[in-house]
Amino acid sequence: MKPYILSIDQGTTSTRAFLVNQDGEIVAKSQREFEQFFPEPGWVEHDANEIWTSVLACMAEVLRIGDVNAREIDSIGITNQRETTVIWEKKTGRPVHKAIVWQSRQTEAICEDLRQQGLGTMIKQKTGLLIDPYFSGTKVKWILDQVDPDRTQAKAGKFMFGTIDAWLIYKLTGGKIHKTDVTNASRTMLYNIHTLDWDKELLDVFGVPENMLPEVGDTSGHFGTTVSHHFFGYNVPISASAGDQQAALFGQACFHKGMVKNTYGTGCFMLMPTGDDAIESDSGLLTTIAWGLNGQVTYALEGSIFVGGSAIGWLRDGLRMIEATSDSETYATRVTSTDGVYVVPAFVGLGTPYWDSDARGAMFGLTRGTTKEHVIRATLEAICYQTKDVLDTMMKDAGVMLHTLRVDGGAVKNNFLMQFQSDLMNAPVERPVNNETTALGAAYLAGLSTGFFKDKDTIKARWKQDRAFQPQMETVEREKLYHGWQKAVEATRVFKVDES
Ligand SMILES: Nc1ncnc2c1ncn2[C@@H]1O[C@H](COP(=O)(O)OP(=O)(O)O)[C@@H](O)[C@H]1O
Ligand SMILES: O=P(O)(O)OC[C@H](O)CO
């Protein structure tokens, strides 16, 4: 048995590679940031080639750091920022446009047109998604409209589309394999999550020829092997591809309905598996695929918050109130409350449960006595309020009670954030010892396919708690604070800049 799995976590702001051993421990890690392009307000793009070279660099570096030879790698698991859209030329492998990132709002006009055509219900029934620029479908249409408006080239089979996993699989296999998995496909708005097929009616709506689309497989399965010149002379199997939020759900061993994880990264994403029941939400949750294993799909409910930890990046880079994101905890705990200040970080609109593309950020309750400590605390609290909005909706739609929330992602190091979250939800918040649950999830999924890991119970047995935050706040206080937040969101949504 080869002793390691190489897990690649291709995220929104950085690429990471990890070596995971059979005890489910991370023995080496490497990380590279890459450029974010903001060509217009609200637009976010990546250079797909830069992402690819960051993956190659991280793979080489993690082997060097771990002092591991490529021949010791059992398999590769890929997990990725979801929805981000790449279209490349079949013949040359060259991207035809920058990758359009999940956060980008540049397809809002296309979305509005779809809403006007009354397609919302059909799209939701088939894909589990709501019409919003977040998903890949309108991004594919947008790129094709730029480079091939009448679709002559696309119909002639000149282009390939992929989410980031499919792009990396294509590159790693030397262009031999064009494949994705069900979790990534379920975020495209082109895939029918019930029939498990690319949907012809949707492809027509978006003007996307089927020949551009990748094959769709189980999350844990066969995605080809690396070509040896990319992997130090070895052909290593790629055995998993999973959207990063789904990989985190798996890595957190949330295998049953009622087990919920929330990831606090750039945005926040809360997922709960619902078994073979694709629960449709009327309150703004998404119905999505948690994973595909052995030909069997598990569904999930998801709440997506577009601005989570990145609001703390804004305090640092935009407002310059802090030098490092970790300073936010120090400042927040210098005051005992926000003194009535609320920050609504709707910088790119609001996701679940509001789905308001036009909303923009706001701050309320300012007085002459407001200090930066209050603003910083209010920004951290906003992450928790948004999470409560999503959680309450999820519990109601699924008809379950929350016992405990499992958390991960870059911002969970912040103890103030975690304690306030627990207080606000009146439930324990469990932080795992190993916060790299996304990478671990991808490693587990890869290892299940090759026999490196025995079964899902092995993963459950390896989950260890670092700290459980217990609720301490009085009910009256909690309700008062949350009521203030609800009023702030309402007021934010009323305010619209007149662009005429
Ligand atoms: N101590 C902290 N307190 C609050 N937010 C933090 C802290 N450390 C990191 N963050 C936030 O966490 C995010 C990074 O988390 P990460 O999981 O690496 O994100 P992603 O995978 O989306 O790139 C950043 O937006 C950063 O502002
Ligand atoms: O890269 P992350 O961790 O911000 O995750 C992004 C999500 O997958 C977007 O849906």
From TrEMBL:
CC terms in the record's Gene Ontology section: cytosol
Gene this chain is encoded by: glpK
UniProt catalytic activity: glycerol + ATP = sn-glycerol 3-phosphate + ADP + H(+)
Modified residues (Phosphohistidine): H230
Protein name per its UniProtKB record: Glycerol kinase
Positions of ADP binding: T12, R16, T266, G309, G410, N414
Subunit annotation: Homotetramer and homodimer (in equilibrium).
Record-linked CDD domains: FGGY_EcGK_like
Organism of derivation: Halolactibacillus halophilus
Enzyme Commission no: 2.7.1.30
Molecular function terms, GO-annotated: ATP binding; glycerol kinase activity
